[in-house]
Amino acid sequence: MSGSTVELTGDQGPGAESRSVLVDRPGSHRIIRQALPEPAAGEVRLRVAAAGICMSDRELYDGRRAPGYVRYPVVPGHEWSGTVDAVGTGVDAALAGRKAVAEGFRACGTCARCRHGDTSLCTGGYAETGFTEPGAFADHLVVPARLLHLLDDGADLRAAALLEPAAVVAGAVRAGAPVPGERIAVVGAGTLGLLAVQLLRAGSPGELTVIDPRTTRTEQAVDLGATDGCSPAETTARQGEFDLVVETAGAADTAHDACLLARRGGRVVLTGMFSEGAKGIDPVHLSVSQLTVRSVFGAASSAWADAVHAFNLGLLAPAGLITHEFPLEDYGAAVALVGSGDPAVGKVLLRP
Hints:
Blueprint: E1 6-7, E2 17-25, E3 28-35, E4 43-53, H1 55-62, E5 79-87, E6 99-102, H2 112-115, E7 140-144, E8 148-150, H3 157-160, H4 163-176, E9 183-187, H5 191-201, E10 207-211, H6 215-223, E11 228-230, E12 242-247, H7 254-261, E13 262-270, H8 283-289, E14 292-295, H9 301-313, E15 322-326, H10 331-337, E16 347-350
Helix pairs in contact: 4-5, 4-9
């Protein structure tokens, strides 16, 4: 164990700086240069390799994230990968040089929910990298070492930046408890939906249908292992067909529609982030059909472990979902692409 900060050699000498994207307030950002952050006791510093931008980051920038779930000014960036380049007191010095990702929720680890393993339900107060704590739209990032998940030495760090959404999907798969041979539907073929296809196909479903209005996305889903794809308009005849429905779109109607797709006694897992005013679930249908409905917000430690394990085994191949990459200085252009409605835009990365 180290007794003081241990650093790798390189550009971390006296006077070394680190750049970050700072969002001072909604709609206003700038690139700042500060002294290289030093990890405190129990922390590690990582050199960020890649950081993904999702709709939550766009909401943060636009000022549409729910109060209590963001703290301005903030350095965004909760989807990322990197290499440990310094460790603080009490942290194993052997971590230096390891490729890694880390959980975003700064769970307390001591409340009843954390003790039960539900770290995404921590009652100790909300704190998350990139929203209330400095995030990865930066050259370097400091996080508690206990949140690290190590990657294989040969891991593709560009692809590994998508392990945060993969962990969310892994949590949804855990909640849905798919059984081999079941009929499964995935609603939405964005990043979450296409990652869900990859994880669900590993469980040998009898049918894996992806529903999205964009034909190019359903075709991509089939390439990734879905058995078929269709548009929402084509699902009326398939209501009540599926044992498990995993909703990933977070659109106005998708929670309601996902419940109609499930068979009586079926399961529905909601992973999309819904906006105020979204169409609710029909309580009569829910009761009469005896559905089990679960929701997922973020990812517990167990889901992170599942996602990283699948990635290290090659069961997850996120690189094909990346369509655009920008340097840190072009954050404004990058965040504008997310949520633009352009069907050619998949996962957008910043590469510090």
